[in-house]
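Pasting two entries for a bug report.
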Amino acid sequence: MSFPLYVQWKILGANTLQIERRCARCDSVTSFVSTEKFRLNANGNRLDAWLIYACLACGNRWNRTLFERRPVRSLPSATIDALQENNARLARAFAAQPPTRSDGFRPGSADAYKIEKKILSKTKSVESTLELVLVNPANLQIRLDRVLAEGLSVSRAMVHNLLEAGAIHVRSASKRAFRQPIREKTVIEVSDAGQKVIPDLRARLVQQGDAGCG
């Protein structure tokens, strides 16, 4: 009897605590880092909150939006207190969240990234089906074949050999998806045919731990 095996690879920027964005004062893309200070604005029973960042090159300030027009009643009193007190732990938790386009983040400029690997469910049979779930929360503009090659420690040519052998395919997508930027969530189905191309393919896929790539 076989059981499905699900493996997740999360694609993260090499340093999620810094945000690469254009600095108005430097007039170029620079790194911004959290000051661990919040800015709040109350409007009736609604609350706006920002985390204040500073450009590492010139010190120019930028407010990263955390939420806008949030009903005060929807926030735990402990969270409101932490915001008002510039709680460092809460600030670091917000700063660790992947940046988005609304933050002025430029995906194309982020070549450095890492793959966080996790087994979502275990299997009792080496012949069971395997699905690789790739999530890209920051929408980093990195080709799927590049992520697979670096995550498996093989060449891109080898990845395309797996594709041609029918060993891997993207659910609900064509082969072109392998040459395009990875989506926010991509599910790849892996068959046993991959063992003929890479004998230890399954072992490479389920290998746990962070893998710095880029």
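Entry 2 (this is the one that rendered wrong in the viewer):
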Amino acid sequence: MKGNFYGASQGGRLAFELVLERILIPRMAIIVVGAFREVEKYREKIGDFPVQCALRFIVGAKDSFANETVKLHEMIREKGVDSRLKIYANIGHSFPEDFGEYLRKMLFY
């Protein structure tokens, strides 16, 4: 897959796992409010992450998965992967209202 790949909640976690396992290697994976638990389990495999795939994480500060998403983002950045994290202060486990605008910015950066 050469384009972009998107996922939200459990679909976001699945999108990340598909890239991590090299089942899909898009140009960019955008994970919105990913349902991540116990991300330490990914640490070993992150070393083999396909570097040609950029990651974009979007999470709400009030989301119960926020802490694990931040940890995952930091682990990925430590391995040199192009990963960015956007935290929305006023949302929980839901899409941000300006998602369309954010998406346009990420796709044309």
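Dev reply: Rendering is fixed now. As a check, the viewer should reflect this: The longest helix spans residues 66-78.
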